[in-house]
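Chapter review: from sequence to fold.
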Amino acid sequence: MEEKSKYQLPLLLFDGQCELCRRFKQSLERLPGTESIQMVSIHDKEVYDKYEQINFDDCSKTVHYLDTEGKVYRGEEVITHLIEKFPLVRRFSWLIQSDMGQKASKYFYDKVNQYREELLKRCGNCK
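The token string follows.
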């Protein structure tokens, strides 16, 4: 049986040194259907050699997701894409299709990212 590459698409890049990001990854792994997503830490430098459309500086600022075609989603686009893609949350996809739902998704992402940045500033071990 062929071993699955850890850089196979679709690919979610997360900050493996951030506790909040690791928890998001663990929660996502529990959702049915997410088994196909490879989740790689942004600190794994080999991933940037494989996919030239991403780089460490951008990935360290916001979450990145590459779909099966290699299209890059950033920030709240990742959240929107994942909500639309997975059956468990598909019944709520109408929320993000409305203008108000998109604003709520953006607000949620912005607040989570702001919290992540504050955690990284306070952490003595984080870069």
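Two observations follow directly from the output. The helical segments are 19-29, 46-50, 56-61, 76-85, 87-90, 93-97, 99-122. Residues 96 and 102 are 5 Å apart (CA to CA).
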